Amino acid sequence: MEKVDVRGMSCPLPVIKTKKIMDQGANEILVTGSTAVSLENVSRLAKTRNYNINVKKADKNDWEIELVK
Amino acid sequence: MDKGKWFILVTGLIIGAIAVVLVKLGNPPNMGFCIACFERDIAGALGLHRAGVVQYLRPEIIGIVLGTMLTSLFAGEFRSRGGSSTLVRFLLGMFMMIGALVFLGCPLRDVLRMAGGDYNAFVGLIGFIGGVGGGVWFLRRGFFLGRAEESHSKLGGFILPAIFAILLFLLLKGTVFNPDAGGPLFFSKEGPGSMAAPLLISLAAGLLVGFLAQRTRLCMSGGIRDFILMRDNHLLLGFIGIFLGALVLNIALGFFKTGFSGQPIAHSLHVWNFLGLFLVGLTATLLGGCPLRQLIMSGEGDTDAAAVVLGMIIGAAVCHNFMLAAAAAKAAAPGVAAVAGGPGIYGQIACVAGIVVTAIIGWSFREE
Known about the structure:
- The complex is a heterodimer.
- Chain A is an alpha+beta fold.
- Chain A is about 35% helix and about 30% strand.
- Chain A has helices at about 15-25, 35-50; strands spanning about 1-5, 30-35, 50-55, 65-69.
- A 4-stranded mixed beta sheet of chain A has the order 1-2-4-3, covered by helices on one side.
- Chain B is about 65% helix and about 0% strand.
- Chain B contains 14 helices and 2 strands; from the N terminus they run H-H-H-E-H-H-H-E-H-H-H-H-H-H-H-H.
């Protein structure tokens, strides 16, 4: 399981960091973040890349999601 | 198309339409909303610069910040945060304003100008896309200004909204602090600064746009950036919506007029229209959002974005005090020679220097 910590990052870094790991061929990625906007953006990226999203922590200001392919 | 995409497209249509209605009610032509122009007018109203034709405490800006603050408080998204290279962001905000005033408008006004038939704005758009592309180049190489931290106190996030609330109070109360000087607050008697929709309508329009832009995360530079980065058209739909909403109403109300010359508050120096918005696109991409988005984020408690807004206001003062801002082209009138417009030599130097310094920042702040 790859881990990406995007807490405190401004747009579009959460997406860039996550995409980088995806491009390395990771099938399981745990992403941790701290804003509603980054949650939306990372989720959108995951959907376009056909990852399933398992929400581990749902607080939109302190969230954790698992992306699985 | 999913629900979110429809929502942002409709939001764009509404904002484009509101902008044209504001022009109909008195705002300057093709300037229903212009974040850079209006922040510049605010700098003038406060007496930070002496350009008498661009001084007004624009209620739209106040409305956007306060509307965002209220929306984000209700949505549970208001969080006081900051500490990500704040001074660098302040400086980039100044450069963002210099670029905008060399072009004569922020990216939002660029869209509104295109929707009014101003071909110069298309030249600006190409520059803007180039600037965003340049910013993406740095992002791909690891550009990062550092993590923002959430503060243990919410107070910091309320500072910028509170400043705007106090300015609204002063605007409504109408106190003249220095009667000999005629202000502050200073109000233009002629020129773009004297053209304004009724105060309460402007304020309401700002509040509504603040609400809509907070919910949809609307961002001009983000639309182009996300498309370049990952072919994601989500934010771009907002951009297109604003264009279409304004275009339809401009045609309906008789404001639509195509051409390079004779356009309101614009100039046809293509190189500087290109480079001006290039600088805006570059800084906006490194800062994570266009001038509108910076206002929205500061309303959500982001003190780094607030530093960008303050940088833009101070940048506007610098632009007019140091003669960096472009002049608008004017046709010859009886007894008055025609003005070609565009930035003077100082503005040209500042714009190029801004691009160079921003590129140095972009290169220096690479991680890993």
